Amino acid sequence: MAKKKKQDGGGLVAENRQSRRNYEVVDTLEAGIALVGTEVKSLRLGRANISESYARDEQGELVLVNATIPIYPPASRFNHEPLRMRKLLLKKKELAKLMQGITRDGMTIVPLKLYFNERGIAKLLLGLAKGRKNHDKRDVEKKRDWDKQKARLMRAKG
Predict the structure, then answer these.
(1) Burial of 16 (0-12, 13-18, 19+ CB in 10 A)
(2) What pTM did the predictor assign?
(3) Which segments carry the region annotation Disordered (predicted)?
(4) Do strands 108-116 and 23-33 pair parallel, antiparallel, or not at all (unpaired)?
(5) Which fold has domain 11-132?
(6) Residues 148, 142: contact at Cβ < 8 Å?
(7) DSSP β-ladder status, 86-89 and 61-65
(8) Which residues are registered as beta bridge partners of 114?
(9) What is the mean pLDDT of the chain?
(10) CA pair distance 65, 85, nearest whole angstrom
(11) Average pLDDT over residues 61-88
(12) Is the pLDDT of residue 83 over 60?
């Protein structure tokens, strides 16, 4: 009998719920993150916050700003800085596509989800997005509520 490999990865760590409300996400892209050991251990505990974070260009590289990964208590003095900028790992074509969206179209790069993939590697789902005004947010909420109500009525009719 072959032993099954322990499934270590595969889990949502943090989600930016307000991003879909505040931005109209045009395109999504998966990116890796350059992390240190204690950051990975803290993420495995499910502790992170990406709600106020965004990605920006720093000398030709994409970095994640304002993402909070709390310190890992057992590491004591060998800990990381919770709010440091983290380099995002992308292919050149993907990076060029994102930079084109930012410069030409005036879009923003917002993180949507932080998770571990099937191989146990920390990944960040990025969204290329346009900002919404308050009246746009209200219109989207009205449309979503109407769609829910319409589906409920159709289900009731059978």
Answers:
(1) buried
(2) 0.78
(3) 136-158
(4) unpaired
(5) Small Protein B; Chain: A; (2.40.280)
(6) no
(7) antiparallel
(8) 14, 124
(9) 85
(10) 5
(11) 86
(12) yes
Rounded to 5°, the CA angle 147-22-98 comes to 110
End-to-end CA gap in the chain: 50
Contact 82, 70 (CB under 8 A): yes
Q: What would the pLDDT profile of 110-140 be if each residue is shown by its tens digit?
A: 999 999 999 989 999 999 888 878 887 888 8
Q: Which residues contact 102 (CB under 8 A, 6 or more apart)?
A: 57, 108, 109
Residue 55 has pLDDT above 50, yes or no: yes
Q: At CA 53, angle to CA 135 and CA 83, rounded to 5?
A: 155
The whole-number average pLDDT for the span 14-26 is 86
CB contact set of 117 (below 8 Å; sequence gap of 6+): 9, 10, 123
State both tokens at 126. Answer: 């990025």
Q: Mapping DSSP to helix (H, G, I), strand (E, B) and coil, where does residue 52 land?
A: coil
- CB-based contact 54:109 (threshold 8 Å): yes
Work out the average pLDDT over 32-55.
88
Query: Which candidate, 8, 4, 44, places its Cα nearest to that of 118?
Result: 8
Beta bridge partners of 86: 64
In angstroms, the CA 30 to CA 128 distance is 11
